[in-house]
């Protein structure tokens, strides 16, 4: 009888740990409007065209012409030792009219629609040789097929 109680206790503890682990993974890895911005700065810091492309919807990120365009955008910084840091200052939900513009763009290019969007103001700091320069930038993100991507 005591052995059965120990087994039940061990099973319950294991079940609780498993549920807590899954919950933690879901919470910390959830895809929010901040996710593509984080990936954007990681890709730039690593100077990775592939990672940069993956911040956009797969219909664009798998397009070789689009990757070539991104590569040309990264080319000027490829040979410099720098790092970007960023903080999100504020975000604004795109109006129906603004969102319609991006819906139509994605619908035309990718045959998909942007469900929701934000204009996110980011304070980005460029660090080169311990010298810092900070400016603000607006980044547009959109919810497409249940995931957040850069939309412009």
What is the topological layout?
Elements: H1 2-28, H2 35-46, H3 49-53, H4 58-61, H5 64-74, E1 82-93, H6 96-110, E2 116-128, E3 131-144, E4 147-150
Antiparallel strand pairs: 1-2, 2-3, 3-4
Structural features, described:
With 152 residues, this protein is an alpha+beta fold. 49% of the residues lie in helices and 28% in strands. The chain contains six helices and four strands. The chain has a four-stranded antiparallel β-sheet with strand order 1-2-3-4, with helices on one face. A hairpin with a 2-residue loop joins strand 3 (131-144) and strand 4 (147-150). The radius of gyration is 21 Å and the shape is extended. The mean pLDDT is 84.
The biggest beta sheet, please? 4 strands, antiparallel
What is the CA-based Rg, rounded? 21 Å
The amount of beta strand, in percent, is 25-35%
What structural class do you assign from the helix and strand content? alpha+beta
Termini separation: 65 Å
Give the H and E element order.
Answer: HHHHHEHEEE
Shape assignment: extended
Residues in helices, as a percent range = 40-55%
How many E-type strands? 4
Rounded average pLDDT: 84
Which characteristics define this entry?
152 residues; alpha+beta; four-stranded antiparallel sheet; extended
Short characterization:
The protein is an alpha+beta fold.
């Amino acid at each position: 009888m005591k052995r059965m109680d120990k087994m039940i206790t061990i099973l319950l503890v294991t079940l609780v740990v498993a549920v807590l682990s899954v919950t933690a993974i879901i919470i910390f890895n959830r895809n929010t409007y901040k996710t593509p911005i984080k990936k954007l700065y990681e890709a730039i810091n690593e100077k990775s065209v592939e990672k940069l492309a993956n911040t956009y919807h797969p219909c664009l990120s798998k397009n070789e012409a689009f990757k070539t365009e991104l590569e040309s955008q990264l080319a000027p910084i490829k040979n410099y030792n720098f790092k970007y840091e960023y903080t999100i200052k504020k975000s604004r939900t795109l109006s129906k009219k603004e969102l319609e513009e991006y819906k139509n763009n994605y619908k035309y290019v990718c045959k998909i629609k942007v469900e929701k969007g934000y204009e996110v103001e980011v304070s980005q700091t460029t660090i080169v040789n311990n010298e810092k320069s900070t400016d603000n930038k607006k980044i547009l993100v959109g919810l497409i097929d249940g995931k957040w991507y850069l939309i412009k």
